[in-house]
Structures are given as C-alpha cells and as structure tokens.
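Hello,

Following up on my earlier ticket. Below are the two sequence lines again, exactly as submitted.
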Amino acid sequence: MNDVTKILIHSTTKIMKDVCTKELVNEAENGHWAAELWGILAESGMTTVAVPESLDGTGGSFTDAYHILRLAGKYAAPIPLAETYMSNWLLADLEMPVSTDPLTILCNEVEPIQFIRTQDGWQITGKAVNVPWARYTKQMLVIGEENSRSSLAIVSSDDALIINGQNMAGEARDTVILNHAAVAESRVFSIEAKQVKEWLLYTGALCRSVMMAGALERILELTAAYTSERTQFGKPLHRFQAIQQHLAAMAGEVTAADIAAQSAIAANEHTPASKAIAMAKIRINEAAGTVAPIAHQVHGAIGFTHEHILHQSTRRVLSWREEWGNETLWAEKLAEQLMQLADNELWPFLTEPVVSRQG
Amino acid sequence: MNSLQLPIGEISEQTGHLRTQIRDFLQQEKEHGAFVPKCDTWLSGFSADFSRKLGERGWIGMTWPLKYGGHERSAIERYMVIEELLAAGAPVAGHWIADRQTGPLLLRYATDEQCREFLPRIARGECYFAIGLSEPNAGSDLAAVHTRAEKVDGGWILNGSKTWTSGAHHAHYMITLCRTSPYHPEKRHEGMSQLLVDLTAPGVTIRPILLMTGEHHFNEVFFEDVFIPENRLIGVEGNGWKQGMTELAYERSGPERFLSTYPLLEELINQLRKKGDKHLIAQGSKLVSRLCTLRQMSIGIAHLLEKGESPDIAAALVKDMGTKFEQQVAEIARLLIPTTPSTNAANRLDQLMAQAVLHAPGFTLRGGTTEILRGIVAKGVIA
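Thanks for your patience. The regenerated structure is below:
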C-alpha cells in the first residue's frame, strides 16, 4: 500500500467517524439525504477518485477508490458512493468530464430501455427497479437499444418518475420510469452493451464485496467490544468458552472476507472481470451469512433492537449479499471457466499468478 | 480489538521456473509409477526413495544456509514447492516434520555443531524426526508434560512416554519436550527442556497405535532410563516450553492445513466436468473459492513469517478454517456425485472419498484441536 492510499484511508476514516454517525444513518433511513456527508467527501475529492484530473477527476488508482469504499461500507455510509464511482468511471471511459454530484446507473431494467431518435436528439422510454439511490441523484446513466444498436445516455434525474423503494437496510432502491425522456444528442453514446453490462456486473460485485468486507470488520469490532463490556455470572462474556468459539468463528470469516476483497482489488488492477471477483463475491456473501447471525446471537436481545447500532451493519451485509449476484450466480460464472479446463488443470488454474508473465 | 488483516502476497514471478520444474518432476514420477496421488500424504504417504529424490533436487531444507546443506531459497519458494507436492498427493510424510519444524527449530536454538550434524542429513532426505510433545496425560493441556530427564555425569537419564507420535517407526530422532526440573503446579511452563533423542538408543521402545482404519501412523514411545548425552540438549535448559511454542507456529499456517483432501477435490471437478452439468460444477466451484481464500491467507502469513513477524493468531485461524474445509470437501463431494467409498475400490473417486472420510477426524485434532485454536483466536481478538 503506497503513502497516498494510506493518507486517503486516514482522512476518510476521520470523515466517517466524525460525520457518519449512528444518528445520521438512522435519519437517512427515514428519508433524509446525507447532504453534509456527501458534501465533505465531494469537497475533498473522494467521490471522483480514479478519474484523471484532465476529466475533472481527483486522480489516484482504482485501489484507492476501493479502499475508500471499504470505509463507506464499514461505517454504513448512506450515500451512492459505489454507484457514483461506477458512473464516473464509465463517463471517463467515454472521455466525458465527471462531476462531484451523486450519480447512479439504471441497472435491473424490467425490459430493454428503448431509445427513439427525434429531430434534435433522443427520447428514452423504459422502467427499471431497485435502482440504488435514484431519488438523490442528479443524473443517471441509462443503457438501451435503438433497433439493434446499443447506446448509453446521460439522463437528468429530474426527467424521470421515481417511486421510492428500499432494501432490507433501508437504503434507497427505487423504481425509475422514463416516459419519452428527452436527451440531447451530445449526451448519447454508442457502446458495446454486452461488454459494458459485463463490466457493470463485475465492478458492482467488487464494490459490494469491498463494502461488505468493511461492514463485517465493523460487526466483529462491535461484537468483540460487547463481549468485554457485558458481564454475566460475574465475568465478561468473552471469558466463556462458548462465546470464544463464536468470536473465533467470526474472526476467521472476517479475515477471509478481507483477504478475498483485497485479492480481488489487486487482480482488478490487471484484469477486469477476473475470477478473483467471482470468488470474492461468493466467499464474502458466505461470510455475511455466517457472521451476522453469530453477532446477533452473541449480542443477545439488545443487538436485536433499533436502539443498538449493530443492525446498521448486519442489515447491510444481508442486503448487499443479494446485490450484484448471489453465491449461485457467481458460482455458475466460475463453473463456466472450470468447464473449459482439461483433466487435472484445476491446480494450475488456482495458482495462476494475477499478473500474467506477458503483462 | 486486534487487527487480523493479512497482506496479500503473490508468489512472485521469479519462482515461475521452479514451479514448472517441480510440476515436470511430479508428472514424471507419477508416470513411472513412483506414487499414486492420495489424500493426506503428509501424514500417511511414506516413501524413503521419494524423500531422497526431493533431497537430491534441493527441495528439502530449501531456506537453510548452504553450510548446513540448505539451499538459501526464500520462504515463498519453499511454500511453492510444498504446495505443489501436497496438491499432487505425493508421499512426503518421511521428511515432513524434519523439514517443516525440526530444521527451523535447530537453526534458531541449536549449536553450530548440532546443526552440522543433523541439518545436512535432513536436507538430503535421509534423516527423519518425530514430534515429542503429547503425552498420555498431556494432550491439549501440553504444560502437563511429565516425561523427565535427570542430570547425570555427561548427560541426562530420560524416563516417561510420548504418544500420538506420527511416523516414530520411520523416524531416526525425536525432539522431546521433558521436565529437567520438578513439576510445579504454579509454574507449569517452567523447568522444561528439549532433548534430541536417538530413537535407536537403548531404553527406547516404540509401539504402534493403529488408526481406526487399521493403518499404522501413530505410535507410543516409551523411555526407560535412556541416556541422553549432554550435547543433545537443544537450546537452553529450562527454555523448552517457549522453544516448543515456536515450533507450533511453523506447524499451523502451512498449506498442509487445507490441502489434505485436495486430490479428492481435483478428481471431483474432473468427474463433474465429464458429466457436463454446470449446476453441479457450480457447487464445486464454491469449494474452489473457499480454497483460494485459504491459500491467500496462508501465503499472507508466509510473507509475515519471512519478515520475522510471528502471526500466531492468524496461523491458528488458518488451521481452524483450513481443516474444516478439508472435511467439507468430502461432505460436499458426496452430495454431487454418488459414490461407494472404499479404500480398495477400483474407482479413483471412491478411493479418494474413503481416504478423505476416514482421515477426516484427525484433521481438526492434530497440531492443536479446533477448540484450543479458537480459544487462542478469541483471546487474540479481545486483547
């Protein structure tokens, strides 16, 4: 990890601890936009990382961005940071200048979004569900078709009808309806839709994996602290062997999740859509399913209340494991690669270095 | 709370050539019928010939100094070689303990003379060691060790016994943890020393303890007035507990803690691919992703060890999760392909399945039970 990354981690941690409080997260769930948190992150350039300065970005590497995202996950930040990164990276790829506004991508479309040519631009029609944070964004990236040609459009969120929805953690997951939304010619780009969608799936999975690794670390910290503070039968909980077994099982899953996320981040620098991302999402989803129930079991009834902070992290990991692919989806992606191998080629496949010798 | 984050470590590209060399060697050996891949070969796959061949190629004592017959390669290069051997199910049990823990122990605590006497023979693959820790009444509670050595003119007289000693019937020597001062209930970790015991010495008796399969790997080793010359004390008299604990750190985080059933996983994926059912392979691919994560954790620890750190807690984690994984491989495999497991089956999958299932109980016991490891991890997390 280089010094720039360390500084970014340090300052993001400070922002999160100071601003992203338990109260802020609860209020966000009640429908308040975390404007102050977004504002501070945007001002310090944290929302446009890994975009070159020539396109109004902050510079830095994807690894930097994923480390910031890990902290957003750890502190349950109720903002579209992952979605804004993904949108900005797509925009930068199209050589469009990025902005510090909250953005999202119209994933989960009910049926292909239709692009219709007009005299001075385009009209876009279609519907998507569970669009992360749509109601708080300024713009959305929309991928659709005109006849058989694929395009990507930058659509003003004001031109969409947004019906509020939420995931299990109370994060905005909205229905977005576009009804002949007008978009200027200069904001529509021809793309390879299949390629872009594949990139979105892998990048989305990596974002959620990294956020979950952060949230799982938080859950372990909360649980370890609780077992030291809480006394029963005259001794702190962590002195009981039954509790120690739980703590160790959690610690193992959290450590595994962290290294799976780190490996996927490292692999992604060299090979986007790598098998490391597929493996990370599988492994970290599994970890979420083990860690959250143990954390609740150890916390007892208090951890099951709204008053306690634990649910802010457990509800998030249990929601995020379904987003951008559950274990089955990613296991089948991996299976497609395993089916291409010859006999006894599993070991070479497993041990293949991330950085290829040619690269 | 202690952070358990591990660094990600690539097995660097300089080792690329070495990996090809060992793969070619293993392929040839298999083709010549020198071995048939099996599960759990670091405990049960004994071949004096094979150990000697590895020694000839410089693949034992790889990290040790040249002057002691070592090859001064990096810990990561060694890691690569041993993971290849384990994944291939090669018979490495003979020299395994000596290479993994006796060598490093001697390098850290033994005299130059002792190193010169033993390390070159170990590195040639000709000299094997047994672990001398557990006793009938000192298992998980190792500090209850009662085997004692009394100081006499020119050495010690050793009395007592060790048990669950893997491979003692093949081994030439044992590093024996014993009391050189009387047992004191309040200072249980004091007064212990490590003696290097010649297992052919008069007064040493080795008796087999058969595994539930009838296989002979375990032994009981009895010491009756065994004379141990003075120059066979390893390290400092009274420092045996600390030295023994260092030995355990090498024991817990290596690839043998999650690859014991790898030959079964590989055969499972081979067979599933032949069936061409993507949904079944997907179930197998979850095991593959777990294995990859364990390997990354283990390599992360190897990097820390090479930097001179002692990540004991993370090592305990790898052993806990890795050995559970070794058991899961068989449990998931049997649901994906119906088998009729038998150690003498003609079908490879049936055979490997039987090996995995019948050896599985040992995985989460040897080298520290899951329960003991979890206690260590929990205390580390809270500290």
